[in-house]
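Q: Here's a chain of 312 amino acids. Please give me its 3D structure as C-alpha cells.
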Amino acid sequence: MDSSELYHIKQQFVLGAYTTLVNLTLPDPNSPTYTPALLYQARAHIALDDPKSALGLLPADSENVAVKAAASLARYVSAARGVDKDAIDTSFEELRDLAVEIEGDDTDGSEEEKALVRVLAGTAFARAGEIEEALETLGVDTEDLEAVFVIVHIYLSINRPDLAKKQFERSKRWAEDDLLLQLIESTIGLATGKDGYSNTNSFYTEQLGNPSLTSPHLLTARGVTRILRNEIQEAVSDLEESLEQQKGDAEATAALVVAAGLGALKKAEADELWTQFVSKHPEHPLAVDVANKESYFDEVASKFEVPALASA
C-alpha cells in the first residue's frame, strides 16, 4: 500500500465512510503504512459503536503509544455503554498516563502518533462530558488539524460557536487547504446557519458526488442541512438512503423523525416512527429532550387551576 492509498483511507475516515474502512484489507504488517491503516480501521469500528471489534484488531502487546490510546478509547466506549464506572476510570487513567508519557523526551513514537494520542484521549474525555480536561489534553493552541476538529465539536456542543470560529480562523493561517479544514468550516456552517447553509450544503453535495465514496454519515449531514433549508422531501430522500446503507443508525433516524414531524409523512406514520425511535433509542438527546419537556409540561399543568366559569 503506497502513500496515495493511505491518503484515500484517511479521506474515507474523515468523511465518515466507516463501513468501507472496517471491510478494508490491511497492508502487510511489515509495510510502513500498516500501523496507520490499522489505527484508522480500529477507529472506524469505534465510530460504528463496535469497540469489541476494535479491541480484537489492536495487538494487546503493542508498545506503540497511538495503538495503546486507541485500545483505551475502545475500552472506555465499551465501559460507558455498560455504565461500568470502574472500567471507565481505568481507561481514563490509561489515557491520562499516555498523555503524560508522550510529553517526555525519551518517548518512542512519531509526532503524528503523539498527536493522535491527544486526539483519542480528548475524544474520550469529551464524550464523558469532561470538557475542561478534553480541551487541556487537545491543546487549544494546537497545530494538529484533527485536534482542532475535535475542539470545534466541543465548542459547538456547549453552544460556543464564537470560539469554534476562532479555532477555524486560527487554523487557516497554518493549515493547508485540507479536506478536514473544509469539513470544519462546513460543520460550523451547519451549526450557525451561515449564508443559509449554502456552503455546507455545497460541500456535502460535492463529496457525495465522489463515486469511490459511500458515506451514510455524509448523507445524514446533508439531510439535516436540507431540513434546515426547508427542503423537506429532499431531506427525506437523503435520510432514507442513509438508513439503507446503515440500518438503524440513531442520528439518521432522529433526523427522519424531525422531517416526518414537519409534514414529510402523514401524522399516523410520523407518530409510529416516533414511537419506534423512542423505543430503540431512549437515551438519544432528542428522545431525552422531548421526555423532559413533556414532564415539565405535566408538572406545570398540574399546578394550573381552571377558574370557575363566570355566572350571568
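Q: Can you summarize the key feature?
A: Residues 145-192 form one domain.
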